[in-house]
Amino acid sequence: MNTEKNDTIHMFLCYSRTIIKSWFQYKLDACIRSFTVFIREASGIIVIYLTLQTFKHINGWKPDELLFLFSLIFLSYGILIIFFTGLRDFDRSVHDGGFDRILLRPRGLLFQVISSNADWFAAIGHGGLGITLFLLSASRIGISWNITTVLYYIAALTGGVLIQGAVFLALASLSFYLIKSNNIKEIFYWNMRRFANYPISIFPKLIQYLMIYVMPFAFVNYFPAQFLLRKEDMHSYPQIFMYITPLVGGFLYFLAYLFWKSSLKHYKSTGN
Amino acid sequence: MSTCLSYFKMSFFNHTVYRIECLMGILNTCLQIFISCAIWKVLYGGNSEVNNISYAMVATNLIVAQGLSNAFRLNDFAVQQKLWDGSIAIELLKPIDLRVSMLAWNLGDILFSLLTNFLPSVIIAGIFIGLLPPSGLLSVFLFIISIILSFAILWSMSTIVQMSAFWILNVWSLATLKDVLIRVLAGASLPLWFMPDAVLTVIKYTPFESVYFIPIQIYLGKIGVNDVLSCYFKQALWFIVLYLIGIYLWHCGKKKIVVQGG
Asked: How many angstroms away from the CA of B96 is the closest CA of chain A?
């Protein structure tokens, strides 16, 4: 048992080393690309920041507080993509038959899918932006950083990664049934993520329900930020939502894992 | 001319095959418009006007500009793809200039997305969010001329990016940076009435103001008929400057072309 465990970690490190080597084969190009992702993602924030020069706040959220809200979504995506790129692009490997190869190997399927790819440009671009925003805002919004808040922050970030990971895993499982699940991902993940860039309280009720109960992005950044900031618009939601992000993450990931397990039985190779 | 027309038709009817994609496109544009309008509505709070600009004007700006920016989407990688797979060699042998055939192809694309993406999205957004009518029949006409010029500017910007493929082999970063500049500075996500003055002074000396903001000002009748000419002049000037840069790059690029493989 113990040797197998060591073996897993060893393999994961081997995989990671190879992936990093392949992504950074052309060093200058890799730097420029990561930087471009950073700028592309930052541009949306620059627009909001410039807008707030005139309006000062959006539903009571000041610029620094918004930056903190953004930092959670970017940081969690930056971490997410190191582990879940294989699931993000999973429909491709079902489509081109790459998944068949993985099925033949004597290791866990999910382990192989997760460890065999990592979009490092996105990780550096999104993660770097998340860190930048965090550093810019964290000391200016009146959060007292002590053991409790730091632990909560880490737990919430992990929860946020797991929530989005669960979504990727569930969508990847869907591609066993649909072969091409790209469109669904586009609608459910990327479009809903656009809403997550703002405090959800500014949107109509329907969108708020979607963001809490259907594609729970609200638990990735809005509610954790509320735990630390306690803005007034939190009154319209159950107070418990501020605390349960890690639980939501764990629970959703567990559900997605069960779905993955049962979907695997339906897998039919695309042939050739 | 007939060759151009067949390129045009080919690219136009190419799209009709993908119906689901078309619906997705409308959904995407509407969602994008809807989110920005929701945000501006909150920013306005209960105020009917901020800095003499009403919410309806902002909404109109966002609907028209974001609708256009989704329709005027050009493939910045066309030349790069031809360089990578070597088909540029065949293109150069054809009795039609590559840039002309590319323009015909792009126009087919654009007309298709204007009809199937811009129009439906603007109508849907207009019904649910509220779109100000143009200030008169004349301004519709002036607006159309102005968006043709905006398209010309965007097209020559895209040409510059595409032609860089002769030197840098992967234009993804350059194309993305170009899109970022347009997104931030052209007024599609932040109407330029609300741009801080310092930034606005800089924008005045760039082509970005001419892309969406001038057409929208004309549409709303904020620019008097007498001043429209000088706006056209500004747009045309930027188009010519950018176009000349594109031509220059194309001629230099043709000379140093390296076709990989065969």
From this structure: 34
Looking at residue A19, the DSSP 8-state letter turns out to be H
Q: Determine, yes or no, domain membership for B261.
A: no
Contacts of B91 (CB under 8 A, 6+ apart): B82, B98, B101
Note whether residue B262 is domain-resident.
Answer: no
How far, in Å, CA of B138 to CA of A202, rounded?
38
ipTM comes to 0.85
CB of B203 within 8 Å of a chain A CB? The answer is: no
Question: Domain containing A48: what range?
Answer: 28-264
Q: Is residue B57 part of a domain?
A: yes
Range of the domain at B109: 2-255
Domain count, chain A: 1
Alpha helices in B186-224 (DSSP H): 197-204, 209-219
Burial class of A235 by CB neighbour count within 10 A (0 to 12, 13 to 18, 19+): exposed
Is B121 a member of any domain? yes
What are A236's two structure tokens? 């319209």
Q: What is the DSSP string of A234-247?
A: GGGS-GGGGT-HHH
What does the alpha-carbon distance between residue A74 and residue A42 come to, in Å, rounded to a whole number? 10
Closest listed residue to residue B208, CA positions, set B178, B175, B176: B178
Q: How many independent structural domains does chain B possess?
A: 1
> Which residue on chain B is closest to A46 by alpha carbon?
B184
Amino acid at A258: L
pLDDT in tens for each of the 272 residues of chain A? 455 666 888 888 888 888 888 888 888 888 999 999 999 999 989 998 898 888 888 888 899 999 999 999 999 999 999 989 888 888 888 777 788 888 888 888 888 888 888 888 889 999 999 999 999 998 888 888 899 999 999 999 999 999 999 999 998 888 888 756 677 777 778 878 888 888 999 888 998 999 999 889 999 999 999 998 888 888 889 988 989 999 999 999 999 999 999 988 877 766 54
Please say whether the beta carbons of A267 and A176 come within 8 A: yes
Contact: B39, A191; criterion CB under 8 Å = no
What residues contact A10, with CB distance under 8 A and at least 6 apart? none
Residue A56 CB neighbour total at 10 angstroms: 9
CA-nearest residue of chain B to A195?
B35
